[in-house]
Specification:
Blueprint lengths: L1 E6 L9 H5 L4 E6 L12 H13 L3 E5 L6 H5 L4 H16 L5 E4 L11 E5 L6 E6 L8 H10 L11 H4 L2 H7 L5 H22 L2 E4 L18 H10 L5 E6 H5 L6 H10 L3 E6 L1 E6 L2 E5 L10 H11 L4 E4 L17 H19 L2
Parallel strand pairs: 1-2, 1-12, 2-3, 3-4, 4-7, 7-8, 8-9, 9-12
Antiparallel strand pairs: 5-6, 6-11, 10-11
Helix pairs in contact: 4-8, 11-12, 12-13
Length: 357
């Protein structure tokens, strides 16, 4: 197992690489350059400089996140081939600098959604991201976008880029009547074009599950369960077509048996990487994110890690969204302290699983 940390780059992440290097057991990053709009080709010089900077700090970067898929690809429009060509160019450039896993999602319009980015947890006074479907009542998507960006502590949020949201009304209109089958057909077309290139380069595409795991504003969603993920893997049967196993996204739906899904996908060798976070159910379509400790939330993280350990022990993992603790101010969900605690917890479980044999 390789333990990593998400880092947004020197210009937009307040956490120094030297601090990440000091986290016990953390050997690399799941990197991201979040200023690129979906459909843009990533600049090769910037990719090279990012990788060199990370390597100079004693860390590796084999996994890149949020190479976002343009809406024209998801909608299956005549423009999609141009954006797929751009995507392939970015894949080639990343592979040329040692990247072997690229995480993406296929969620229409909204990559992820919370109703509060800084909700106080009454039990300990920390702050975390929170979702309550009842709070969406009466809110338009446009109002939600303004509210979300307004509570981001001045940081950009992947999936909520201003240039995308400027087109929000037009994009939502184009999705009217668009079905899950339509979206799945668009994903098949994308995978058929990109996976052969990934096979050639030794790169795995890892789809991120929908977050949360249910439809929003009438938009179709296709990666909400283990069955959904198996359908996606069957669209293009290749090792290059893989999954980013995210406990928080899949776990938002209590019907999803996370250890069982992890074991099934792991046995098929189709988990390329994993995001590990915990959340606490507070009611129907209502939850908050919490510490990684299983007892603090509703997810069986020990069971998930045991399944990963037994079926894909070489998986790359990172702690996902943490709380804001000890007075830290930063990017919501991506502070240093609670994610470092998460790494310590995950590493402790992994060591116990490894030594028991």
């Amino acid at each position: 197992m390789k333990m990593t940390f998400r880092w947004f780059g020197e210009k937009s992440d307040p956490i120094p690489l030297a601090y990440i290097r000091q986290i016990p057991g953390c050997t690399g990053l799941m990197g991201v350059l979040d200023h690129y709009a979906a459909g843009e080709v990533w600049d090769e010089d910037e990719i090279r400089d990012y990788v060199r900077l990370v390597n100079a700090a004693g860390l590796e970067v084999k996994v890149i996140e949020s190479v976002n898929v343009h809406e024209e690809i998801k909608l299956g429009s005549p423009e999609r081939d141009r954006y797929i060509d751009n995507y392939i160019m970015t894949v080639r450039r990343l592979a040329g600098h040692g990247v072997d896993t690229i995480i993406y999602n296929f969620m229409p319009v909204f990559d992820w959604l919370r109703t509060d980015l800084n909700r106080r947890i009454p039990e300990d006074g920390s702050f975390s991201m929170y979702y309550d479907e009842a709070e969406l009542a009466g809110l338009t998507p446009q109002q939600l976008a303004v509210r979300t960006n307004g509570s981001a502590n001045g940081y950009s949020l992947p999936g909520w880029e201003p240039e995308r949201l400027e087109q929000l009304n037009q994009i939502l209109d184009r999705y009217r009547g668009f079905t899950v089958d339509d979206l799945r057909g668009s994903l098949r077309y994308f995978l058929d074009a990109v996976c052969p290139v990934c096979e050639e380069l030794g790169v795995r595409l890892a789809i991120h599950p929908d977050d949360p795991a249910w439809p929003l504003f009438g938009l179709p969603r296709l990666a909400r369960s283990g069955d959904d993920l198996n359908r996606i893997l069957a669209l293009h049967d290749s090792p290059a077509n893989a999954v980013c196993f995210c406990t928080g996204s899949l776990g938002s739906d209590p019907a999803n048996d996370l250890p069982a899904i992890a074991a099934e996908l792991g046995k098929k060798n189709r988990i390329a990487c994993a995001h590990i976070r915990n959340l606490k159910y507070l009611g129907y379509h209502r939850f908050r994110e919490c510490s990684h400790l299983s007892a603090d939330g509703s997810l069986d993280l020990f069971g998930v890690l045991a399944a990963l350990h037994d079926t894909c022990p070489d998986v790359t993992i990172r702690p996902d969204h943490g709380r804001a603790i000890w007075g830290e101010k930063g990017r919501p969900g991506y502070g240093l302290y609670d994610r470092a605690l998460g790494i310590a917890y995950i590493n402790g479980i992994w060591e116990a699983l490894s030594r028991k044999d």
